[in-house]
Amino acid sequence: MRPKPAESVVLLDPSQIYRPEEEYSEYNEFIISRTDKTVEDFRNYNVNLQTDKVHMTYRMMHEKQTMTFVNEKKEHWCCLNKFKMTIMDAVHMLDALVDESDPDTDLPNSVHAFQTAERIRVAHPDKDWFHLIGLLHDLGKVMALWGEPQYCVVGDTFPLGCKFSENIVFPETFANNPDTKVPEYSSKYGIYQPNCGLDNITMSWGHDGMDLFFLARRFVGNDFRLVKGDINDQVISKSKLFRVHVSGVNWKQLQASQRGSMAMKIMSGLYMIRYHSFYPWHCNGDYNYLCNKEDMGMLKWVKEFNKFDLYSKSDAIPDVEAVTPYYEELIAKYCPGELSW
Question: In its UniProt record, which GO terms are filed under biological process (predicted)?
């Protein structure tokens, strides 16, 4: 049985509202039409209707998300022992999140998941795993229903343990982050080596990270675990496309199993989920010096996914009842039954 939160939670995702990057100018114009602002007003972000709330979310995020904080969140959530529910239960549970950036508050939040998935389905009809990723990409937001503050759930993500990029939104709000006072975290590379790979980087905590952990556990089976006190243990997939921050996975054994085969097939999807909110990287090219060749090879897929995520809110509302059986089949194929959260 899925748990039922006591009440709805108002959620405002600043990643969907404030996009300063030039490549999203068309998307910004769509957002303007929803806020009754002109193009000039929107680009002068100080007068946007959501300024204060978006800025506050990022200020809290940038002040509180430190290396220590993120490791504590991983330890709390990634043991995946809080509750159990199916993927479709989780999709519909998104309806308990009230999107404050959307003027039509009667529109179920799960519709965005189906919109994203359906746009991907049209563009990539032969990639059913990609369709499923579109449906699943925001499921980590259910953390907000169990008390997580918004700065731990939504918004752009960024690396910790090294110098914060000036292209992170509202970079001035990092001034009170305790990690800025730690010398080894203040240089370009920080605690990392050049081209070490994003899988070796500690990212800020949000719904992307939660999505990764509960999906990876389903795809790789019960051997998926996070070792307390050893957060950064890693396993490398044979494809070398993605590394999951787990330990104890026997990839040779997984390769021989049906579940393992599916897991390998969907590695690129997990990568998209993990980094789709990492805008400083996939929009501005920041932190390329930490990326390895696998990261750069996957960048095109992150960009491809992101355009469906952002632009899908302007699409017609899909007939959810009509398309649900298709996605239930995909769920049965790739991640059946109840998942641990």
Answer: inositol catabolic process
